[in-house]
Design brief:
By secondary structure, this protein is an alpha/beta fold. The strands form two sheets. Strands 1-7-6-5-2-3-4-8 form an eight-stranded mixed sheet, with helices on both faces. A five-stranded parallel sheet has the order 9-13-12-10-11. Helix 3 packs antiparallel against helix 4 and helix 4 packs parallel to helix 8. It is elongated, with a radius of gyration of 30 Å.
Length: about 400
Amino acid sequence: MPRIFDNIDKSLLPALRETLEVSQRADFCVGYFNLRGWKAIDDLVEKLPGANGNYARLLVGMVGHPSEELREALRQGDPDDSRMTNGKARELRDKLARDFRDQLAFGAPNDADEVGLKRLSQQLKDKKLQVKLFLAHPLHAKLYLCFRQDANNPRTAFLGSSNLSMAGLAKQGELNVDVLEHEATETLAKWFEDRWADRWCLDITKQLIDAIDESWARPEQPTPYEIYVKMAYHLSEEARSGISQFDIPEEMRGRFLPFQAAAVRIAARHVDRRNGVLLGDVVGLGKTLMATTLARILQEPPWRHNTLILCGKNLTSMWQGYVDTYKLAARVISTTRVETELPKLGRFSLVILDESHNFRNPEGKRYQVIRDYIARNDSQCILLSATPYNMAFRDLGSQLRLWVNP
């Protein structure tokens, strides 16, 4: 009579550990592998010789986004070798490697996790554990096979629903049984071996090692200088991407100093990625021309924006001059008229709000009308102000909330 492990009345983990304690090698097949969950059994795998086939093998069947893409690839018919290509297999393997890196980014690191991950990395390097990704077809099987030198009980299998994670092995409700009968365990061992040897079963041991050794659990911790350089690299990523992705229209290039041209490109990146930007330079540094250039860039494909310019009554003629000179697909409206004009105005996909510091009170009627128009039309936004911060930080926050949902 097999034992039943449901992690409620009886947990799988203690039985699996007792069996591994007297085993010389092991084969595991799971749908999902949690790197941090490995520490539940890593001390027992550490005792395996690691030579002459006496190690642990782990077959991963389905993980995250790669599996979804695989399902789509196989949706139209029976899975066969013709549905998979070398390029597709490499792509799915690389996506799985990124998924493992994402695992390590979740949650707060702790000492136990760090020790466990370092041990996992070393076991992979010492060949006490080998890991493969099965791609021939979606595979949800959960099988734990343990082997030992015992004529009466050479193999013990645990078969059921538990993935190789702390939740699957011990915490959440599962349903597993142990299998001891000789013929049944022999059949399960052959089933595993057939999939391990499949042409679309790819070794991902190196990808796992790299994911761990490049994370916070790496064997050698980075120096403070290396951390500083990495932070600077990531903080400047938006600027580098904007400068490389966007260009100043040819007829406007001669109007800019280098720092202004760079600011326009970086601002375009922010509008494209975050739906808005605030240009907060002091008087005389060219905010109007920079915003006009931004609008020109964003009215070209693929954005094809038309622009609504909201400004003080005394600035409408100046802005209309920019619209005419640089052929903007735009309309200029005085902020004194927004309460009557905006509720009945058609959609403009880009809104420029000049002197945005005048709109720092969310309770103001004009503020609410402008914010409602931007939200209703899903418009992107460019704010201009020489004094975006006046009395309190909430002044700046209120301006940003014209397009940023809290």
